């Protein structure tokens, strides 16, 4: 079964993250890299990316079928998706076990686990 | 795509049909087997209830040789843990467990929870679809996640029991079954997982609560609260069983919220009268409950217990702090009213009771509140 793990953080934690001193930031990234490395080695991760912050986001919204380009993410949310991983595992429990060990982000970080449509 | 879960449920339904056909003519089989307890059990109990030797036969069922049928045991636990998977909403967990493990019909679940049949049917369909779509595994959780997952199962059982024991709805009579069923299911889990003290704690709590059943309503169906209950009507055998369960759980040296609540119930059961209750010990137990599973309701109960040896003024002070979070909870206002009476504020007590009455749906509780309001 393939799932997408969507990694989100609360807006306030994201802001803290941006102000974080260099070495602390590097340590945090090392944790995340370790997580990706471990699970890639066991063959569970088949894809994934880190996304740039919401300030870099641009939205194309359709109005009556016509595209309108605007600055910013498409919803005003209290949480921001910062990245995702595509995983190939046995079942939901295995995906949840991965999500539970996700190290990236603040104390209130969120991981949404969604199955991928497989045809 | 048919998930394991659907298959499992189909098997359950099949066995139920077999039992329905066989038992009325042939009686209870000599060796009821493990399947009996899960699938057709509900029907069995109905038949047994009509039997004078209900208790003896129930005991016979309880002694069914589970130990020799490990695969059946695994199957039932697997089914329970799958129904109570945290990826399903708790409402769905309850409905699914009642349907697949206890054998309730959709109609029965609907009437037990005062929902429409359509709502229950949709809940079950959605839950099953999620099991299949998200690939929720049909298996026992790993040892590493067992404790957390067991908590989920116990919450479902506790919720079922409470719903049956003190219904929030408007029809009391038909709900009694739900408490019995929750008790049965908890007994089953305790049997299948004998080394889990919290399961035993919950079983003790239920057993001790049910033991008071006969004293909870008077001849005209009016509710009788603990202080006014005729303690001679309590079921001494059940109380002894509950206390024994707590002792066995305690010996495993891993305390938890259900064991603590069971111990509180046991202290009430052991007291010869309301006045002789060991309130000090009860407050100590509530203190540990606050540390383990803090909630406004736990604090409310603690304050009421406190009032019996530290005085109602002190308790009132404590529960006033809970007013914000418990405004919509009728028992908060009812407890406050009793304390206000005790400090000589009948007018305020009356207001609090009227508020409790507004919030309360259970007819027996409403009638009790009305009587108190009219007395003053």
Q: Main traits of this protein?
A:
heterodimer; A: 119 residues; alpha+beta; Alpha-Beta Plaits; four-stranded antiparallel beta sheet; two-stranded antiparallel sheet; 3 helices; 6 strands; 31% helix; B: 376 residues; mainly alpha; Serine Threonine Protein Phosphatase 5, Tetratricopeptide repeat; 21 helices
As residue ranges, the low-confidence spans of chain B are 13-55, 60-70
Shape of chain B: globular
- The gross shape of chain A turns out to be globular
CATH architecture label of chain A = 2-Layer Sandwich
Query: What's the alpha carbon Rg of chain A, rounded to whole Å?
Result: 16 Å
Q: What would you say this structure looks like, in words?
A:
- The complex is a heterodimer of chains A (119) and B (376).
- Chain A is 31% helix and 36% strand.
- By secondary structure, chain A is an alpha+beta fold.
- Chain A has one domain (2-115): Dimeric alpha+beta barrel (Alpha-Beta Plaits, 2-Layer Sandwich).
- Chain A has a 4-stranded antiparallel beta sheet with strand order 2-5-1-6. Chain A has a two-stranded antiparallel ribbon with strand order 3-4.
- Chain A starts with a strand and ends with a strand.
- By secondary structure, chain B is mainly alpha-helical.
- Among the domains of chain B are: 1-153, no CATH class; 278-376, Serine Threonine Protein Phosphatase 5, Tetratricopeptide repeat (Alpha Horseshoe).
- Chain B has helices at 4-26, 33-38, 41-49, 54-62, 70-83, 90-102, 106-112, 117-133, 143-165, 176-192, 197-210, 213-216, 236-250, 257-270, 279-292, 296-310, 312-320, 323-326, 330-342, 346-359, 363-375.
- In chain B, helix 19 runs antiparallel to helix 20.
- The longest helix of chain B has 23 residues, at 4-26.
């Amino acid at each position: 079964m393939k799932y997408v793990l969507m990694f989100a953080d609360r807006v306030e934690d994201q802001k803290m993250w941006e102000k974080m001193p260099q070495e602390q930031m590097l340590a945090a990234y090392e944790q995340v890299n370790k997580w990706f490395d471990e699970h890639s080695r066991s063959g569970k991760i088949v894809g994934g990316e880190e996304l740039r912050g919401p300030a870099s986001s641009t939205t194309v919204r359709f109005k009556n079928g016509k595209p309108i380009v605007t600055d910013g993410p498409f919803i005003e949310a209290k949480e921001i998706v910062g990245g995702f991983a595509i995983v190939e595992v046995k079942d939901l429990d295995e995906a949840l076990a991965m999500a539970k060990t996700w190290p990236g982000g603040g104390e209130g970080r969120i991981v949404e686990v969604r199955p991928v449509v497989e045809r | 795509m048919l998930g394991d879960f659907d298959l499992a449920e189909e098997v359950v339904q099949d066995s139920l049909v077999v039992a329905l056909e066989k038992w009325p003519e042939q009686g209870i089989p000599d060796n009821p087997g493990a399947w009996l307890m899960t699938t057709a059990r509900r029907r069995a109990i109905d038949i047994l209830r009509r039997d004078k030797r209900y208790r003896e036969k129930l005991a016979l069922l309880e002694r069914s040789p589970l130990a020799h049928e490990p695969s059946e045991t695994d199957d039932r636990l697997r089914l329970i843990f799958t129904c109570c998977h945290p990826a399903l909403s708790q409402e769905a967990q309850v409905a699914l467990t009642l349907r697949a493990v206890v054998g309730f019909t959709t109609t029965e679940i609907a009437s037990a929870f005062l929902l429409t049949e359509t709502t229950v049917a949709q809940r079950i369909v959605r839950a099953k679809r999620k099991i299949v779509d998200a690939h929720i595994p049909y298996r026992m959780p790993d040892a590493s996640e067992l404790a957390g997952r067991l908590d989920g199962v116990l919450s479902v059982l506790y919720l079922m029991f409470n719903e049956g024991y003190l219904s929030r709805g408007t029809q009391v009579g038909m709900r009694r079954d739900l408490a019995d069923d929750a008790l049965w299911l908890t007994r089953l889990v305790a049997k299948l997982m004998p080394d889990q003290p919290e399961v035993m704690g919950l079983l003790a709590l239920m057993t001790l609560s049910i033991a008071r059943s006969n004293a909870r309503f008077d001849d005209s169906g009016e509710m009788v609260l603990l202080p006014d209950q005729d303690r001679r009507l309590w079921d001494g055998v059940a109380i002894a069983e509950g206390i024994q369960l707590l002792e066995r759980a305690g010996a495993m040296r891993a305390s938890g919220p259900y064991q603590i609540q069971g111990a509180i119930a046991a202290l009430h059961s052991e007291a010869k009268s309301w006045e002789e209750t060991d309130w000090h010990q009860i407050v100590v137990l509530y203190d540990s409950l606050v540390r383990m599973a803090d909630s406004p309701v736990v604090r409310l109960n603690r304050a009421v217990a406190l009032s019996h040896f530290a005085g109602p003024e002190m308790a009132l002070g404590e529960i006033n702090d809970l007013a914000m979070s418990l405004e919509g909870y009728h028992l908060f206002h009812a407890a406050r009213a009793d304390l206000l009476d005790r400090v000589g504020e009948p007018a305020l007590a009356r207001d609090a009771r009227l508020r409790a009455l507004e919030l309360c749906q259970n007819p027996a509780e409403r009638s009790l509140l009305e009587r108190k309001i009219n007395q003053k």
